[in-house]
């Protein structure tokens, strides 16, 4: 695993985001999914519940559909994968 | 007459060893042909002429008992000179080789430094370490304690934007990905390009805060009066749970700051017609001293 856990020198060197920057959603195409997710988070008081994570998955799916994000497997994004019945995207 | 001086006679002179360099003695002893002795004799005459010469070719000047004090002194001086010359040559060679070595090192330093910095991230060069984002890092750790991530924001004073987080805090487990939103509104009448940077408090937790995708370090252009939502998709590295230095940290603050982007020639970006040339934008930060 990590060969040098908690070395203070590691804290000094920042890691850039893996996929860089999100393209801006100027046309608010994913606004609905975003508001649904934010409502859910308000309800659970920020506990990052599994149903809210599914809504986050919806939002990211919307982004992928509108070319606002690179398409990728859900396992790479740490989100539960699609159920096999409707077919894997 | 050379046959008169036998080898043993020469070797028995212990004091000879101190006066005469070993190489010269060896030549004189192993080759007892007349021509060689003549050669050796000549090597002495280069430095000084021995005063007493019974016969030029035949007698080598090794007979200590027959040499006068001046001759012994001369032999000694000769040896000293040879030694000094040898020593000087050695020292000169050492110094010149050191000079060449350091010159070579200074040329090699550029690629070595680059490789070292890319590997260790020393000096702030970010490590693009793909191992931080492998799939096994995205499995939530099974603990009771969730880490509270608070979101704060700040805007540069010359940037006429309103920039706020959409949620106060999120409670996550290490290894669990989370999505957070910020909202930015440009309430001026011009299109403005801004750039965001972020910071993590406490600083020790920053090494475990991995962002999959965010909106920082790239220009974000907002049209006049436009309001936009900016997501941050991140997770805390699962090693956070097993690091003893992190056991007291259960509150992390993610702080975003938006700055106004300027062009290199000092003109502020103010109209939509201005096209952005890559690499020519300077981020101006006149008033934020404590960031």
From TrEMBL, chain A:
GO terms for biological process: metal ion transport; mitochondrial respiratory chain complex IV assembly. PROSITE patterns: CHCH (PS51808). Residues 1-24 are annotated as: Disordered. GO terms for molecular function: copper ion binding. It is found in: Cytoplasm. Keywords: Cytoplasm, Disulfide bond. The keyword Cytoplasm applies. GO terms for cellular component: cytosol; mitochondrial intermembrane space. The keyword Cytoplasm applies. Signal peptide: none annotated. InterPro entries: COX19. Required for the assembly of mitochondrial cytochrome c oxidase. Belongs to the COX19 family. This is CHCH domain-containing protein. The lineage of its organism: Eukaryota, Fungi, Dikarya, Ascomycota, Saccharomycotina.
TrEMBL record, chain B:
GO terms for cellular component: mitochondrial inner membrane; mitochondrial intermembrane space; mitochondrial ribosome. The chain crosses the membrane at residues 91-110. InterPro entries: CtaG/Cox11_dom_sf, Cyt_c_oxidase_assmbl_CtaG. GO terms for biological process: aerobic respiration; cell redox homeostasis; mitochondrial respiratory chain complex IV assembly. The keyword Chloroplast does not apply. One of its GO terms (molecular function) is copper ion binding. Its main location: mitochondrion. Keywords: Membrane, Transmembrane, Transmembrane helix. It is found in: Mitochondrion inner membrane. It comes from the Eukaryota. It is a single-pass membrane protein. PANTHER family: CYTOCHROME C OXIDASE ASSEMBLY PROTEIN COX11, MITOCHONDRIAL-RELATED (PTHR21320:SF3), CYTOCHROME C OXIDASE ASSEMBLY PROTEIN COX11-RELATED (PTHR21320). Exerts its effect at some terminal stage of cytochrome c oxidase synthesis, probably by being involved in the insertion of the copper B into subunit I. This is Cytochrome c oxidase assembly protein CtaG/Cox11. The gene is NCAS0C01520.
């Amino acid at each position: 695993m990590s060969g040098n856990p908690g070395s203070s020198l590691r804290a000094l060197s920042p890691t850039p985001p893996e996929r860089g920057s999100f393209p801006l959603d100027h046309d608010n195409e994913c606004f609905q999914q975003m508001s649904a997710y934010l409502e859910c988070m308000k309800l659970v008081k920020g506990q990052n519940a599994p149903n809210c994570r599914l809504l986050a998955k919806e939002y990211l799916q919307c982004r992928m559909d509108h070319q606002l994000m690179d398409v990728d497997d859900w396992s790479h994004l740490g989100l539960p994968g699609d159920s096999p019945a409707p077919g894997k995207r | 007459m050379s046959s008169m001086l036998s080898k043993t006679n020469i070797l028995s002179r212990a004091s000879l060893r101190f006066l005469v360099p070993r190489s010269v003695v060896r030549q004189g002893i192993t080759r007892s042909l007349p021509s060689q002795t003549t050669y050796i004799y000549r090597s002495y005459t280069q430095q000084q002429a021995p005063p007493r010469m019974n016969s030029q070719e035949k007698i080598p000047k090794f007979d200590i008992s027959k040499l006068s004090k001046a001759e012994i002194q001369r032999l000694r001086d000769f040896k000293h000179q040879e030694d000094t010359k040898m020593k000087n040559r050695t020292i000169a060679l050492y110094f010149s080789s050191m000079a060449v070595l350091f010159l070579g090192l200074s040329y090699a330093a550029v690629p070595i430094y680059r490789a070292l910095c890319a590997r260790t991230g020393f000096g702030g060069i970010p490590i693009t370490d793909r191992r931080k984002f492998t799939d096994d890092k995205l499995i939530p750790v099974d603990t009771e304690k969730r880490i509270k991530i608070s979101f704060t924001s700040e805007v540069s004073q010359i940037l006429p934007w309103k920039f706020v987080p959409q949620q106060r805090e999120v409670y996550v487990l290490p290894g669990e990905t989370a999505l957070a939103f910020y909202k930015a509104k440009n309430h001026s009448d011009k299109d403005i390009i801004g750039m965001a940077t972020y910071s993590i408090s406490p600083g020790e937790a920053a090494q475990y805060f991995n962002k999959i995708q965010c909106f920082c370090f790239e220009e974000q252009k907002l049209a006049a009066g436009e309001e936009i939502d900016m997501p941050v998709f991140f997770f805390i590295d699962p090693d956070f749970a097993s690091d003893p230095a992190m056991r007291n940290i259960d509150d992390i603050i993610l702080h975003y700051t938006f700055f106004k982007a300027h062009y290199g020639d000092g003109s502020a970006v103010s109209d939509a017609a201005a096209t952005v040339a890559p690499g020519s934008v300077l981020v101006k930060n006149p008033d934020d001293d404590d960031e």
